[in-house]
Write a structure and sequence with these properties.
The chain has 14 helices and 15 strands. By secondary structure, it is α/β, with parallel strands linked by helices. The radius of gyration is 48 Å and the shape is extended.
């Protein structure tokens, strides 16, 4: 019987490729090479083939990747202001007599071409097409520093180069750190007091590194060398103003979220008729200034920072107290409550008492005795219900010192504190008590006598020869030769005297010759030191001139290449 091959085909077993084993690994590696994939085995077998060619390029790529990562992490600040931005506040700070007012006058002269006689309050100038600057001189007191650190966008720290850093500068830096640390630049003044160029260069370097330690490495520090016609040099002021004009100020989050105004001027708009009728009447004052931060809503309460002329110490401090009371008398929804604590309480008028079940009471007055509260509840309550009271109790603050408000006194009144012991003794003409034990006495010490070392004979016999005592005892009675007198003949005495005279003359000549040689040697050394100093200065100037010429040649070469 024949099989119909057209309708039914014979089925064969499907080939199954290996999934594991050495042949499967070879096949997989071969297919990977065809696709262009580099396996880890190749890197292990030949690590040099996969290394970078240029170390500089690898370093640049690594720095770029890190910079991209940090830029991604950096959260950009949102500028919520609209219209023309308010002028940036440039705060000029420094100790007294360092040149703050003169620096503001020089900067105003640079921007406006006008001379300023006196600095009174904030000064606003135009520094660019879309930028204004407001110069403010920081007062030299701690309260003024704290207020100035809150609104400053850029702080110019003036430092006396001839004296160095003072305590005011470090205090202001700590205050700036607390208030967000705005941009800071340093300015060195009084550099014309240095006569030696080497000392000036070392002082600049020392102050610059100290300034970097306080802020960060690379912080800008400008040098104002001296005065020309009562003003700082134009070139140095020009360099400082260029950096101020292009400085980018990062807005601080707290300032952008809170509105604040730095007052430029104020006007008294009180009607004159009211002032004539009552000189001590309430005044209406309008304050003018640029609004910074966010928008200021109408009717918002403001905090005005100004001078304090009087300080009252009569403040009452109270503490929150929760107590439960006991019902004394009930009349419908009214209840008279007596607190358990027998204290003089100040009960809140809004929330005098609260029942356990949640009734809202209303406090009623008119009780003859202090400490008893009469309340009205919404629902009827029982005499056995627990009533919780919210009240305040006065707290006495312990005094650890005697506060002095001498800074608020008029200038013509001088404050007199407690007298010292020295002042009291001087007034009563009393001598200073002397303690005998505290007096300085001459030190008397008895001379110490050290007995000679005596080694027993039995121990000497056991010692080696090198360690045995070999010093013979000194003779108590002198020898006969030493006791015998030598009597010279007359001729011998003459010869001996002549020899002594010749020896004395020779010693005097030798002494004079040595003194003369020492003097000549010192003169030669001084002359040589002077010549070396002149040569050193000449070589330094030659070296500087050579370096200048080399730098000019390099600049010319760079320009030609560009």
């Amino acid at each position: 019987m024949a099989i119909d091959s057209g309708s039914n085909e014979q089925s064969h077993k499907v080939h199954r490729s290996r999934q594991s084993g050495s042949s499967a690994k070879k096949k997989k590696a071969k297919s990977g090479k065809k696709k262009g994939d580099n396996s880890e085995n190749d890197k292990q077998q030949n690590p040099k083939a996969f290394a970078f060619n240029s170390s500089a390029k690898a370093k640049r790529l690594q720095a770029r990747s890190v910079e991209k990562e940090q830029r991604r992490l950096h959260v950009p600040s949102i500028n919520r202001s609209y219209g023309e931005p308010p002028p940036y506040v440039v705060l000029v700070h420094g100790p007294p007599k360092v040149g703050k007012s003169l620096l503001i006058k020089s900067l105003v002269k640079h921007y406006t071409k006008h001379n300023l006689d006196e600095v009174r309050g904030p000064i606003t100038v135009v520094s660019g097409k879309k930028r204004r600057l407001q110069f403010v001189e920081c007062p030299n007191d701690i309260n003024g520093m704290i207020d100035a650190a809150k609104y400053a966008d850029l702080a110019l720290l003036l430092i006396d180069g001839s004296y160095g850093f003072e305590m005011e500068t470090f205090e202001f830096l700590n205050i700036l750190q607390v208030h967000g640390f705005p941009k800071v630049m340093g300015v060195l003044t009084h550099l014309d007091q240095f006569k030696d160029a080497k000392k000036l260069r070392k002082t600049k370097q020392r102050l610059k590194h100290r300034f970097w330690t306080e802020i960060y490495d690379g912080a800008k520090l400008f040098y104002l060398s001296g005065l020309i016609h009562g003003q700082y040099p134009k070139r140095e002021i020009h360099n400082l103003s260029r950096f101020i004009s292009v400085e980018k100020f990062r807005p601080l989050s707290w300032r952008t979220a809170h509105p604040y105004v730095l007052v430029d001027r104020f006007e008294d708009v009180t009607p004159p008729q009211r002032v004539q009728m009552d000189n001590k009447c309430g005044r209406n004052i309008i304050l003018y200034g640029y609004l910074r931060g966010c928008n200021l809503k109408k009717g918002t309460k403001v905090c005005v920072i100004a001078c304090v002329f009087q300080c009252s110490m009569k403040f009452i401090l109270v503490k929150d107290l929760k107590d439960f009371g006991e019902a004394k008398m009930k009349m419908n929804e009214r209840l008279t409550v007596v607190p358990h604590l027998e204290l003089q309480l100040l009960v809140n008028s809004g929330q005098a008492a609260k029942e356990e079940i949640g009734n809202q009471p209303n406090k009623k007055g008119g009780q003859p005795k202090e400490g008893i509260v009469r309340c009205t509840f919404e629902d009827k309550i029982k005499m056995s219900d627990i009533v919780f009271l919210k009240a305040w109790i006065q707290v006495e603050v312990p005094k650890f010192y005697n506060p002095l408000t001498t800074a608020l006194q008029p200038r013509d009144q001088t404050w007199q504190g407690m007298k010292t012991v020295a002042e009291l003794r001087r007034e009563h003409n009393q001598p200073i008590p002397v303690n005998k034990d505290s007096l300085y006495k001459p030190i008397e010490r008895k001379p110490k006598k050290f007995n000679p070392l005596v080694i027993p004979k039995s121990l000497q016999a056991a010692l080696p020869f090198a360690s045995k005592p070999k010093d013979t005892p000194s003779r108590k009675r002198p020898l006969l030769e030493n006791r015998r007198a030598v009597v010279m003949e007359p001729h011998e005495r003459k010869v001996h005297a002549l020899v002594q005279h010749l020896r004395l003359i020779r010693n005097e000549k030798t002494k004079k010759r040595k003194i003369k040689e020492e003097k000549k040697k010192k003169e030669l050394e001084a002359q040589k030191a002077k010549e070396e100093l002149i040569t050193k200065k000449r070589r330094r100037e030659e070296r500087r001139e050579r370096y200048r010429e080399q730098e000019k040649q390099k600049k010319k070469t760079r320009r030609k290449i560009e």
